């Protein structure tokens, strides 16, 4: 590491008068007090990287000790740094200094440079501007005069820019909605005015409506010191041209962009978080392969409206008790070409022929990989503009323009609301695709070096997979809050799932919650208090262990109402998901019988509560949820069941069906595999907490054993609601993420006995529908509060002489505490995870009257109807691989 290198930004400017010098920025063997420190300033940039000679140097005073206490609390990862102070007079000019190139210089007694580094400036920008800047509205905002005429104002926060213009194009597209359109000619240059909050604004005229615009900023680029003009779309864009080349001045209150189905469909009734049953779905997957949907609408926002196999399937799920559809990203993203004329894809007939000839062949993935960068599929975790819908899901290139894509996205929301389904959007505020001055790096083009989380040398941290966003910075949080409020208010969505939520702070989630709670039906058309929040509370990367802030991770969201995905129950049921050998690490649903997994499952069934108490099946000793280990973490971490999202399948990793194929012996009968699929779903659906399914799990969906299908094209992400093809045997999955496993995968893919029939898929679907009906009809499975769960939920045979690791018995006793169900005094869930029938003694329940619940008595599964209760003996007989739900009527 070179101590004299302006390409690095190893020091920090934190407040108006305070800089922080980390020890690692110093030459080895040199102490901070041995050097004289100055802040080098070059208003026009141009400093030499390795021999900087700034025209202005401001004296810095080295203070004793580490950073002062309040600053150290705000920046805990910098607490041990040396503090350097500007004089009061110099600090007073900080705003102007930051529009030029600023560097930290340290000279020895001979005046020679020993340290020269650029500065990380997010801290001081927040110190100078956050209080005022966070009270402004950004992007295009509209005001009405007395006759209702609407006029736009554009506002952008760019405190380090030396000048900002708005570039405005005069044209708007004609009536042709099929072809792509871009504004012709040169734009008018409209000067923007800077305010003392770092914002630049300009108010237009009503004629600006639906016109295209860009921002042109004059920057001194940090580190390089180049002074240059940079053009950018608006990071707060609500409308875009195709492929996001320009922002569009869309008025989201314009009736032209409010389709009838969206206006008229009633917003689903507010429910408690634990009443949710969530279905995770990709927009393109839903209708792409549905031959009953008109071809032009397949894979689009409008594919949710026609009466195809997919819509009928969703309607059946909704009737049975599904409450919510969670959509993978629909914000504007970088990874899919929006113009169909410029896309490419492998020939589907050739892929079918290859798979008929060799379902374990390698040629299929070669063809898919050739067009992966130009095809129409990606999961979409590649944010570009957070507040505008993605254009590739529109029905044509022309419909991807401006308010047209807004209208089509709203139509999708309306079509789902018509089914009574709530809509949750996947939000990805933890990273962007690009940083720096790359085309898709809209944030860095506006405020270079501010919005991304930087490592100790000033490079963008990438533990999130990509360019990590720093929502701990005030305007990063503002972006996150504004985006959520906009989607709730202007699209009427009902919830948000946050990708890698542990890279956000608890304060971020509390700010989102508070802003949503301010939305009212009278003023905003929605009740923001009814919007649910959940996300991935994983703890890793440069922020792990609250290194930079108090994270939004599992166990740290008590009282917020924000849910986190429960990997404990997932692993207990399906087994390890990250082993090099996918056959290893079996869970209770995939042929394992570990008593520790039994304890993990029981904690999950009780809503993941830290305080739940039972006898451990592993040790026979009393334990709490927090006392059951999950690696080095507690299995139970929640203080309320709404803080836990139970799942066994999601878009990440192999599908549940593929996991069953991998972990069970190859000769396992198809009937057993189908029962295990239903049993695994039962552990989620019959649990306290929030129930979450991945689309297609209920119909045995396979991705041809692909463990990471984010860019595996339409071919490997097949989803067939007509129940003819579950997606298995489409060739070996793409080599980059699966190649090492090919020797294990090939024999399975080549085995025709592992391909389920339509009858198998139909039975799995119908049994899954019954699970939804049970959860819907039995409020004792949705108690909703920790007090009720702790009062009523127990595991009466666990850790006793009657317990066994492959049978879980959960009692929900409504005679304890306040009454929940006026008709039933109890529910008994028996999960027989073994391959044979069991006679399970629960002697404490003799001689009570229990019977199989109505749904299972009259339901799709003939096997579960063999469940019997012996009141005198206090025992229940349950068939193999069966989730039986018994009820105790009152009276």
From TrEMBL:
Gene3D superfamilies: Glycosidases, Golgi alpha-mannosidase II, Immunoglobulins, Rab geranylgeranyltransferase alpha-subunit, insert domain. Signal peptide: none annotated. Pfam families: Pullul_strch_C (PF11852), Pullulanase_N2 (PF17967). GO terms for biological process: carbohydrate metabolic process. CDD domains: AmyAc_Pullulanase_LD-like, E_set_Pullulanase. Residues 575-584 have a biased composition (Basic and acidic residues). Residues 365-724 form the Glycosyl hydrolase family 13 catalytic domain. InterPro entries: GH, GH13_cat_dom, Glyco_hydro_b, Ig-like_fold, Ig_E-set, Pullul_strch, Pullul_strch_C, Pullulanase_N2. Residues 575-597 are annotated as: Disordered. GO terms for molecular function: pullulanase activity. Belongs to the glycosyl hydrolase 13 family. This is Pullulanase-type alpha-1,6-glucosidase. It comes from Ornithinimicrobium avium. The gene is pulA.
């Amino acid at each position: 590491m070179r101590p004299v290198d302006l390409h690095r930004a190893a020091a920090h400017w934190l407040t108006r008068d305070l800089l922080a010098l980390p020890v690692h920025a110093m030459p080895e063997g040199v102490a901070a007090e041995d050097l004289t420190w100055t802040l080098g300033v070059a208003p026009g940039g141009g400093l030499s990287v390795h021999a900087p000679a700034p025209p202005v140097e401001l004296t810095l005073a080295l203070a004793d000790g580490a950073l002062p206490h309040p600053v150290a609390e705000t920046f805990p990862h910098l607490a041990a740094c040396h503090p350097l102070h500007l004089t009061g007079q110099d600090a007073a000019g900080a705003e102007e200094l930051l529009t030029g190139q600023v560097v930290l210089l340290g000279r020895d007694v001979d005046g020679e440079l020993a340290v020269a580094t650029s500065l990380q400036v997010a801290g001081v920008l927040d110190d100078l501007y956050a209080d005022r800047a966070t009270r402004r509205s950004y992007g295009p905002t509209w005001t009405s005069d007395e006759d209702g005429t609407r006029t736009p104002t554009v506002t952008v926060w760019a405190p380090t820019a030396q000048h900002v213009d708005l570039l405005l194009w005069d044209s708007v597209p004609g009536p042709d909605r099929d072809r792509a359109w871009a504004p012709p000619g040169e734009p008018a240059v409209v000067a923007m005015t800077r305010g003392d909050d770092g914002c630049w604004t300009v108010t237009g005229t009503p004629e600006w409506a639906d016109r295209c615009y860009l921002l042109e900023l004059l920057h001194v680029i940090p580190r390089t010191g180049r002074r240059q003009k940079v053009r950018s779309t608006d990071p707060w864009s609500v409308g875009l041209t195709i492929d996001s080349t320009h922002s569009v001045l869309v008025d989201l209150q314009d009736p032209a962009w409010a389709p009838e189905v969206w206006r008229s469909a009633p917003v689903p009734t507010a429910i408690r978080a634990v009443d949710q049953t969530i279905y995770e779905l990709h927009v393109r997957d839903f209708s792409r392969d549905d031959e009953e949907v008109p071809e032009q609408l397949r894979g689009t926002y409008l594919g949710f409206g026609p009466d195809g196999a997919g819509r009928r399937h969703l309607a059946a799920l909704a009737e049975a008790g599904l409450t919510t559809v969670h959509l993978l990203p629909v914000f504007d993203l970088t990874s899919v070409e929006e113009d169909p004329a410029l896309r490419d894809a492998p020939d589907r007939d050739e892929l079918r022929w290859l798979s008929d000839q060799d379902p374990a062949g390698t040629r299929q993935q070669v063809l898919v990989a050739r067009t992966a960068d130009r095809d129409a599929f990606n999961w979409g975790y590649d944010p570009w503009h957070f507040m505008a819908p993605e254009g590739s899901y529109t029905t044509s290139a022309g419909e991807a323009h401006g308010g047209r894509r807004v209208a089509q996205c709203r139509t999708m929301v309306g079509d789902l609301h018509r089914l009574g389904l709530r809509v949750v959007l996947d939000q990805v505020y933890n990273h962007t695709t690009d940083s720096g001055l790359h085309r898709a790096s809209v944030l860095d083009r506006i405020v270079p070096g501010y919005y991304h989380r930087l490592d100790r040398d000033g490079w963008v941290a990438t533990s999130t997979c990509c360019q990590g966003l720093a929502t701990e910075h005030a305007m990063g949080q503002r972006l996150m809050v504004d985006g959520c409020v906009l989607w709730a208010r202007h699209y009427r969505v009902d919830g948000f799932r946050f990708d890698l939520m542990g890279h956000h702070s608890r304060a971020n989630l509390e700010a989102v919650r508070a802003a949503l709670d301010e939305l009212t039906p009278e003023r905003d058309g929605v009740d923001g208090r009814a919007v649910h929040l959940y996300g991935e509370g994983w703890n890793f990367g440069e922020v792990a262990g609250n290194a930079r802030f108090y994270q939004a991770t599992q166990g740290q969201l008590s009282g917020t109402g924000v849910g986190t995905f429960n990997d404990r129950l997932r692993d207990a049921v399906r087994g390890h998901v990250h082993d090099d050998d996918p056959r290893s690490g079996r869970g209770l649903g995939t042929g394992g019988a570990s008593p520790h997994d039994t304890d993990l499952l029981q904690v999950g069934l009780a809503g993941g509560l830290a305080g739940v108490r039972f006898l451990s099946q592993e040790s026979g000793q009393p334990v709490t949820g927090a006392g059951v280990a999950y690696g080095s973490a507690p299995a139970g971490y929640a203080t309320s069941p709404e803080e836990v999202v139970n799942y066994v399948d999601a878009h990440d990793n192999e599908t549940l069906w593929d996991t069953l194929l991998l972990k069970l012996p190859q000769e396992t009968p198809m009937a057993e595999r189908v029962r295990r699929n239903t049993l695994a779903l039962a552990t989620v659906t019959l649990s306290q907490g929030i129930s979450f399914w991945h689309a297609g799990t209920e119909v045995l969906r396979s991705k041809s054993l692909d463990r990471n299908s984010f860019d595996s094209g339409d071919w490997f992400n097949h989803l067939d609601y007509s129940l003819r093809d579950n997606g298995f045997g489409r060739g070996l999955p793409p080599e980059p993420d699966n190649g090492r496993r090919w020797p294990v995968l090939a024999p399975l893919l080549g085995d025709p006995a592992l391909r389920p029939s339509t009858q198998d898929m139909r039975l799995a679907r119908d049994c899954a529908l019954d699970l939804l009906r049970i959860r819907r009809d039995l409020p004792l499975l949705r108690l909703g509060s920790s007090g009720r769960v702790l009062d009523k939920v127990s595991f009466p045979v666990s850790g006793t002489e009657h317990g066994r690791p492959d049978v879980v018995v959960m009692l929900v006793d409504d005679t304890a505490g306040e009454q929940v169900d006026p008709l039933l005094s109890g529910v008994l869930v028996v999960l027989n995870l073994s391959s044979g029938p069991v006679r399970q003694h629960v002697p404490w329940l003799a001689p009570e009257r229990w019977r199989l619940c109505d749904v299972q008595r009259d339901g799709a599964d003939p096997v579960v109807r063999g469940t019997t209760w012996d009141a005198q003996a206090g025992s229940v007989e349950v068939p193999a691989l069966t989730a039986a739900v018994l009820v105790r009527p009152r009276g």
